[in-house]
Structure formats: C-alpha cells, structure tokens
Fold this sequence. Notes:
Layout: E1 6-12, H1 25-35, E2 39-46, E3 57-59, H2 64-71, H3 77-80, H4 84-92, E4 95-104, E5 107-115, E6 119-126, E7 136-143, E8 149-156, H5 161-173, E9 186-191, H6 199-205, E10 209-210, E11 229-233, E12 237-244, H7 250-253, E13 259-265
Parallel strand pairs: 1-2, 8-9
Antiparallel strand pairs: 1-13, 2-5, 3-4, 4-5, 6-7, 7-8, 9-11, 10-11, 12-13
Amino acid sequence: xxxNGIRIATYNIHKCVGIDRxxxxxxxxxxxxxxxxxxxxLQEVVIxxxxxxxxxxxxxxxxxxxEQVRFxxxxxxxxxxxxxxxxxxxxxxxxxxxGPAIDEPGHVYxxxxxxxxxxxxxxxxxxxxxxxxxxxxxxxxxAISGSRVFHLYNTHFGTSHPERIEQSxxxxxTGILAGSHPDDPQVLVGDFNDWFAGxxxxxLGDHFHExxxxxxxxxxxxxxxxxxxxxxxxxxVRVRRVEVHASRLARVASDHAPIIAVLxxxxx
Length: 268
C-alpha cells in the first residue's frame, strides 16, 4: 500500500536561544506550528530528565492546563526552559521522543523528535568519538498507511572533520541504518556540520540520496551562507518538495533556519 504527502522537518533550535540572545521556547513552538509538519526533528534541545544515551524515552502529548499548573504563568521562563522537550510537546500537542547526547548533572541536552504519527519504536545510538563532545543519533519508528513503518533518524554531527567522517562511517557501516529494515522508508536528517560537502557528505551520499544537495543555505538563519542542515532518503522514498523555511520568525528564533520536505512512497 502506498503513502503520500508526509511532511518532515529538521531544525537546530540552539537551545531555544535566538539571534537576539533571548531564550524562548514559545517562539520555537510558533515556528514549529508554522511548519505544519507531521514529524519535526530537533537538535540542541535542553532536556530536564536524565537518560542514558543508549536509551532515550517517549512522552505522549501533555495537556496544556497541566503544563500551566506545573510551570506557573507564561512569564516564568526560568522554570519552563529547564525541559524544552516537554514544553514544546505541551505547546504543539505532539508526542515527543528524546535522545540525549550529553547527560551530565546540570547539562542534559540532545536530539528530539516531535510527531503527530503513532510511535511504534525508537532507539538512541551513541556515535561519539574519542575525546570529543558526545553525539547521538535518535531513530524513531512511526506507523504510516497499512502496516508500514517509517524510520526517521535525527542526528547532530561533530565540528571536526575526522569526527564527522567517523560518525558517517558508523551510521552506514555498523548497522545503525541497515539494522532497522532498509526495505522500509528511511530518512536521515539533522545538522551535519559539513560546511563544504566533504568526505562525510560523500560517504552518506553513497548510501542515500541527499534531498537537499541543491537547496539554498540555512545557516546562519539571519543571512544564510552554509548548508549544515540536510535531509537524506533511501530508495523507498521520493522527495516531492524541499525548502528552507525562512519566515520572519524563523530568522530570529534560532541561529539555524528549519528545512521542510514533503515525501511520497517511491514507485516500485
């Protein structure tokens, strides 16, 4: 059975710090609502609750009333920003799957997936390299038409070139991507930090089609010059449309602009 028109987005929210240096979860939530996506992959999200990088956890949509009771009035930004994943789920009504990368006292953050589609599985993979900042790749499995499952991978690569090469190899050679039914639709998204489409981009491109290879830059959001944010798809996915979401709000809410794609089942 085919499926059509799934809208996915990838967005590095910079811990909800805008270019005006103001922390605002509500502003990021407004950008997410502008995207009108079925699945939104976020990077650099502050997470209050600790979880091992090999785990991750799922939270169902929170009730806004309960969130208001928990955090108090809207002006209580200090409390609200301690768990940006929970707050974003409350403001958008999405289910949220979190995949911490850094898990230390007082400093827990990583990748998050917001989704309107039913979550049927997830796994968080440690792709850290020696003596570099911890990194992770979060896989979320969602149910689509019939009994089909759609696998989304959300990651944030490191800032050094050798680190990114190793992380690319780990994704394609250690079973992270191949281990979740490669004959199902697979989409890999995130902030790949590969400024000039070097060896990491080529390595991933040998296994997946890069849907964003001709897309205009998305970083920095206010005046983009670099293509750090990318979307890759396997042979089971056709990209109908992909674009940078450059609304006035998105240009100030984070240092990255979000990218959104509309995906269909590939023929055959």
